[in-house]
Amino acid sequence: SGSLIEQLTTEKYECMVCCEVVRIVAPVWSCQNCYHVFHLNCIKKWARSPASQAEDGNSGWRCPACQNASVQVPKTYTCFCGKVHNPEWNRNEIPHSCGELCGKKRQCLDCPHLCNILCHPGPCPSCPAFVTKTCECGQTSHSVRCGQSTKIHCSNVCGNTLNCGKHSCTQVCHAGKCSPCQLTVQQVCYCGSNFKEVLCGSKEEFSDGFGSFSCQNICGKKLNCGRHNCKQVCHPQPCQLCPRLPQVVYRCPCGQTPLSKLLELGCVERKICTDPIPSCGKTCGKPLSCGSYEFIHTCESLCHEGDCRPCSHTSNIYCRCGFKKKDFGGLFFFLIAAITFMCDKRCNKKRSCGRHKCNEVCCVDTEHKCSLVCGRKLNCGLHRCEEPCHRGSCQTCWQTSFDELTCYCGESVIYPPVPCGTQPPECKRTCTRPHDCDHPVYHSCHSEEKCPPCTYLTQKWCMGKHEFTSFLTFFCTLTYEQLGTDQFVKSRFRLLNVGDCSPCLTCCPSFQSLSLHPYIPFQKFVLPQMKSTTLFFRIAAISIATKLTDLQLGDSVEISRLITKKEMKQARLQCDEECLALQRNRRLAEALEIDDNSDPFNIRSSGPKYSDLLKEDARKDIKFVSDVEKEMRMLVEAVNKGKHAKKSHCYPPMNRDHRRIIHELAQVYGIESVSYDNEPKRNVVITAVKGKSVCPSNTLTSVLDKEMQSRPAPPLLRYKQTDKSSGNSGLSKPLKEEPVIDYFDVQD
């Protein structure tokens, strides 16, 4: 508050919106959260601007200083306490204040007193009044400042009643609720055979009069008959009546015959629970637990009391995967086999990763999740994937370096965090690594350990040791007159790496002749076939090496002299009959002064030209070609007559030959064609463009029909006419001449 008052009085306070000084007489607005002061007009403009709106869009506008959201836009100029509108400036008062008591509620929630200083900017000071407050336990009281927010604690024991309602708190005066009671009490189960200790006041302490919890053992209490014990699990309610009492049992042990009928037949009436229950003499027939859903096994003994005897039948038990089954007899063996029986078949299905097989014995898993670790190298090339084996590509390496990654010379830097596998940055400075030679370096800084070969041209002796030149592979430039015949020839052979000059080489017919010098007494030297080929490539390399300096300066080098005429001839395509026809037509057009763009003989508009391969494919499937042409013609007519500039049609997936037919026909119709998707669902989409796509005068099917009509018909079978003198007026057997087969027949 003091700093705000000083800056406003000396006109040194700046508005955060317009960055101008807040004058003494200018209308202002003060934020009630951060107490910043703004020009009233500036804050109005800011509140209406889109930049001031809160992120959720419903909380109003944000303060430029503290970002506190407000719903209402300030409209009037008020003093700091808000009592006076448009306050007048008084030289003896704080600027923009009313000069009266502030009277605003202080920020402390417990303080009931209002601010008692004059109207001021900034927060109200703490309350100076003294009040009496009690400690946390309420046993003592103290006189403290009203604005003091600290809690008062005494040194007495709390003594408040705990949650159990039986014991008191033993802690020293503390804030908040007392902690739960930590004393333990002993509880007994419902049957009275087991005990346990629980916290006092907890939910487990509840008791219904019979006990507090169930021990999950057999109750064992005496029933009301006084002769039998309760066989139920430890329970809270009273035990049930004895199940063998005469007033409870109404049927025989198997349950098929009422006891009233047995009494009529002469059975003795039961008086107490220990008397035997009369048997009806029928087969028991109670279902046993060893059967299956398809076939239920029943007890085959006569009506009896107690448990049934073991089953005498055998049961079919399938392994857990259902591949094999076995026969077991008896309930005990049936239950054990149902738990442990597994076949030896190994699962051949792929696991979820798609790489490994399941290989589990008697597998019942449906997902077949792979439990192995992936282990493939990540994109960084340094670490391996530690996730469970999975399909698809591994995730990027999650390891990150927090060290700077620099080039070799340290000029280019990548600042952390640097993902694992990041290559060093490119650097345009010249390489500063130590080199084997002292020549100038022309390559840039690189991350590879080994530098590229040196490209600087040095001066060395020629092959003949005659002069100092600047070639990578060197020729001797001394003339024949300066050396003499033998020395000149030997220097040449030393260059060609053939060896000493020998007269016997001139007699070998398997050598090629090579002219070296016009003044040598004999005009030809002989070289082997391999040596002459090697020589040519060495000469070519030498000529290119001499131009390396020009290449480094950015100039071009002519290498046509290094290529033989034979190689130049082999590098060109041979002209075919169509090329010769074009040359002949061009010469005729120049002689007759005919423009290339003119068409005097109506050649270009005579009709489309279909390739022989397209015709051959069309003859194999004429119906497919007819449907394709019909669809293309309809598409071209629709786009030329309609308003749209383009129209497309998508064909269903088809094989490669059919797609090739569509692409070739699309070129004839001037239609764009593109293939999409992968095999076997690859299809073709054609697009007709207005003004570019046209329907040809002759379709491919009509051209094939005309060719069929112009082709001569196959010869008929010829029959020999018998001589009239022979007496046979009929026709003889046909000649053994094979009929002509038209392989272009498309009726099949």
TrEMBL record:
Gene Ontology biological-process annotations: negative regulation of transcription by RNA polymerase II
Domain RING-type: residue ranges: 15-67
Gene3D superfamilies (alphabetical): R3H-like domain
Pfam families registered for this protein in UniProt: R3H, zf-NF-X1
Main location group: nucleus
InterPro entries documented for this protein: NFX1_fam, R3H_dom, R3H_dom_sf, R3H_NF-X1, Zinc_finger_PHD-type_CS, Znf_NFX1, Znf_PHD-finger, Znf_RING
R3H domain: residues covered: 622-690
Keywords: DNA-binding, Metal-binding, Nucleus, Phosphoprotein, Repeat, Repressor, Transcription, Transcription regulation, Transferase, Ubl conjugation pathway, Zinc, Zinc-finger
Location within or outside the cell: Nucleus
A GO term from the CC aspect: nucleus
Entry's Gene Ontology molecular function annotations: DNA-binding transcription factor activity, RNA polymerase II-specific; RNA polymerase II transcription regulatory region sequence-specific DNA binding; transferase activity; zinc ion binding
Span of domain PHD-type: 12-69
PROSITE patterns noted in UniProt: R3H (PS51061), ZF_PHD_1 (PS01359), ZF_PHD_2 (PS50016), ZF_RING_2 (PS50089)
Protein family per UniProt: Belongs to the NFX1 family.
Name of the protein this chain belongs to: Transcriptional repressor NF-X1
Organism listed in the record: Promerops cafer
